[in-house]
Amino acid sequence: MDIQGYRIGHGLLAARLGYEKIDYDNAIKYILPSGHGDSWMIDIHPAPGLCVSNTYFTLHEPCVCVYEFKQPGLWLCSFDCGSVTILERGRRRQKLQQGAHVIVNHGNPVEVTLGEGDFRYTSIWLCAGFMEKYMDSRTFKQPFAITDALDWQNQHYHTPELLMVWEQLKFGIRNAIAPLMYFESKVIEILSLIIRNISYAWYGTRFIKDERPKHLTYHNRKYLQRVKAALDKNIVNPPDIRQLACIAEMGANKLRMVFKSSYGMTITSYVRQEKMNYAMRMLSNDALSIQHIGDYLGYESPSKFTVAFKKVHGFTPSQFRKSFGLYCH
């Protein structure tokens, strides 16, 4: 099993940026030399062919790295911020920004381009050999192949429930004191939840439906996707309905109707959900007060922010911080 590309983790990028390598407990941590700010890349290898990582760094100019993969695999990631372009030989270029992503690698070299700016993300590098060995060791038989992920849709892996698991994984990596089986189990949990969302369509489409109304033309669908992209790009201060209607090239009433038919919720509900996903990421930084986060997201008071957060996630901002041992204020 050739897993060299999956063993490198962030070592190649760290070397390019002049980071120092520190081995501790179960993790490899790369940091900038003293005097260059608080930045890190942390890799943990729970098993051969599996690497989980968390990053917190800033680039002042773009950086390109080429990874040599000789075995198919997956790159799953949850971006707080940052812009990354993935180009696998013989495949279409993919650009990743805030949110959850799943990239399938076919066992070819991959060019990774990181743009200028801040990078905060948690990721999983997973090779086919790891999954085959894991599944062979189970008493149950759950069909799963890396290429299955080619059919996964955004609504299968971009849900508040999965974001919570990503947050748990993020803090586990940062603390690096959990046993290795914890990280392996979190990876399996993420994959299991995605498979569950696919197997039970009604469950996976509670947040965003993949259905398209029959009366929408290709032109309508294309511009509706642009509406969603405009919301995702600036979810804190999203465009108003008139601006969105201009982007969609349809009337405001029709836009409201087709958005709900296509995504299973109103524009207002979608904005609320994604704001609260963004809020969860902000709450990970306990230097920010809950009131400050609520103000930033446009809520008149901490209590209204708390109500909105609990409506989406099922627990309050304070409960979220307490569950990770963060300073609650």
Would you kindly provide a written description of the structure presented here, covering whatever features stand out?
The protein is α+β, with helices and mostly antiparallel strands and 329 residues long. The chain has 14 helices and 11 strands. Strands 1-2-3-4-11-6-9 form a 7-stranded antiparallel beta sheet, with helices on both faces. The protein has a 4-stranded antiparallel beta sheet with strand order 5-10-7-8. Helix 8 (218-233) runs antiparallel to helix 9 and helix 11 (267-283) packs across helix 13. The longest helix has 20 residues, at 180-199. The radius of gyration is 20 Å and the shape is globular.
Element string (H = helix, E = strand): HHEEEEEEEEEEEHHHHHHHHHHHH
Structural class: alpha+beta
Overall average residue pLDDT: 86
Radius of gyration computed on alpha carbons: 20 Å
- Which geometry do the CA atoms define? globular
Q: Helical percent range?
A: 40-55%
Q: How large a portion of the residues is in β-strands, by DSSP E?
A: 15-25%
Low-confidence stretches: 208-214
List the helices and strands and how they pair.
Blueprint (H helix, E strand, L loop, with lengths): L3 H5 L2 H7 L2 E5 L2 E5 L8 E8 L2 E10 L3 E5 L5 E9 L2 E5 L5 E3 L2 E7 L4 E5 L2 E11 H9 L17 H4 L2 H16 L4 H20 L1 H4 L13 H16 L7 H8 L3 H12 L3 H17 L6 H7 L5 H12 L3 H7 L6
